Structures are given as structure tokens and as C-alpha cells.
Amino acid sequence: MARRRSGLLDDVAAMPWPIGLGIGICGYVAISHLAPALLARGDGVAARMFASLGGLFNLLGWLCLLGCTLAAFASWSRARRTRRLLDTRRGLDDIAALGWRDFERLVGEAYRRKGYTVEETGLGGADGGIDLVLRRDGKRILVQCKQWRREKVPVSVVREMYGLLAHHRADAVHIAALGGFTPDAARFATGKPIELVDGATLLAMIREAQAGGQARVEPVVRIEPAVVASTDAAATPGCPRCGAAMVRRKNRRDGTEFWGCSRFPTCSKGNKALKVR
Predict the structure, then answer these.
(1) pLDDT tens digit sequence for 112-168
(2) Alpha carbon distance 234, 246 (integer Å)
(3) pLDDT tens, residue by residue, 223-234
(4) Which residue among 7, 12, 130, 259 is least packed, with the fewest CB closer than 10 Å?
């Protein structure tokens, strides 16, 4: 079911708390002081009536300030909780234990620490949709969050999000899913402005954010923690399946190194293709 905001204070609460508090102060000054002064100008009956209502305007001004202050506090509290939500994640099990709403906030915070401006749209929900809108360097990116741990996202979901790209005049689509994506979904996303963020990639983003790093904006691919990129371009072979550059990886079980395709998991058969000599 889609989330809906119920009023002006919900919109204020969705803003950064300093902005909400500033709106409250400006509203108080405008209602308590400016409005009575403007309406009471002149010598007519209406002017005298508004002049007699100064106490009411003052009360309304204080109510505006109080409401915006409470909304600003809610914004501050939610932002603090979201930061803590990211800082306390230690693995995929911690992420999977979250509710779907907290999962969306976690993904949004991870992107926020990468330098994006993040908007929680309220157009998504437990079943999906557009959950976040990212903005950076003049580009607009739609994000859908799928907290499916035991199920892979099928190609139909990726097609649906790709169809929203033109409708919302966005530049790209990101889909974050703990359980990963089906091969058909990965093939469909190849060559399109679609980035598939699986659980391992999301966890890497979270750990980078926890370390305080600023990542470059680049296509998201799954990278195992043991990946070590080769710095010798001349010695780097190409993937025998797709031709993309290979990267050095290490087998956690026996410690042996091998060349794997840099486009893994999109090019899944290119992984572990060549042993490092």
C-alpha cells in the first residue's frame, strides 16, 4: 500500500530540521505581526475589526511556531535514527532483519553519504514502486528497494522500473535487492541506464559510508571483499566471454588467485575464468 502524507506538517517534517524551524519562525512573524499590521491599515470598519483580533493572530502565530518546531524535532529525530540505522549494520543478516520502511531509509542514507540528495517519495510501499529519488550533478535517479532475501528480483520488475524512466523524465534507475537478480533481469539491464544493486554491493556501500568515504558515481557491480584490481593494464587479460577487463580475485578457501570478469554478475560465466600464474 502506498504511503501518503496527510498535511503541511508532514511536508515540514520531511525537510531538514533547520528548514522546518525556519519556516516556523517566519510563520510566527508573518501571522502575529505582519498580517495584523497590514489588515488594520486604514480607518474603515474592516480595519477596526482586524485591529481587535490582534490576540487571535498572536495565538495562531504561536500555534504555527509550535507545530513547525514539533515537525522539525521529528525530522531531527528521524535523521538521527537513520544515521544510527546505517552505523550499526554489521552484515546482511542485520539488514534482512529490518522492516521494509527501515530498509528504504537505510538505502537512502547509504546514497546520501555518497553525496546524493535523497527524497523519500512516498510513492512506494511494501510491494515496491519508486521509493527514493536521487539528485546529483543535475541528474535524477529513481530507486526501488526490494528486501527480498530468499527471492531474486525477476526481469518483470526491472522492465517495470525501466518503463518509469521516461514517464518521470529521470536519467537512470537503481534497484536495490538483498537477494540479487535473476539472469534474465541482469541481461535486460545490460546496456541500459539501470544499476542492479545486490546485497553484497549494498553491504559494501554501507561499510564505505561507515568508514566516511566518498565514492565516485559509477555503475554498481558486485565486488567480493577479496577483489584486488590489477594496476598493470598491459598484463590484464580480457574476459573470454564478453571481452571486458578482468580483475584479480582470491579464493577464500584455498587462497589461490584467479582472473574474474569485472562485469560479474552480469557476465557470470566470466568469473573464475583464468587462473593467475
Answers:
(1) 999 999 988 755 554 457 899 999 999 999 999 998 888 899 999 999 999 998 888
(2) 12
(3) 334 333 333 444
(4) 7
Q: What cell does 3 get?
A: 504511503
Q: Give 239's DSSP letter.
A: P
What pTM value is reported for the model? 0.58
Q: How far apart are CA 187 and CA 199, in angstroms?
A: 18
**Cβ pair 246, 262 in contact under 8 A:** yes
Cα Rg, the chain, nearest whole Å: 26
d(CA 199, CA 151): 12
AA identity, residue 112: R
Q: Which residues neighbour 241 within 8 Å (Cβ) at sequence distance 6 or greater?
A: 261, 267, 269, 270, 273
Residue in 261, 277, 161 with CA at minimum distance from that of residue 269: 261
- Determine phi and psi for 70, rounding to 5 degrees: -65, -40
Cell of residue 20, nine digits: 522546518
The count of C-alpha atoms lying within 13 angstroms of the C-alpha of 9, restricted to the half-sphere facing its C-beta, is 12
Could you give the CA distance from residue 146 to residue 160 in angstroms, rounded to a whole number?
14
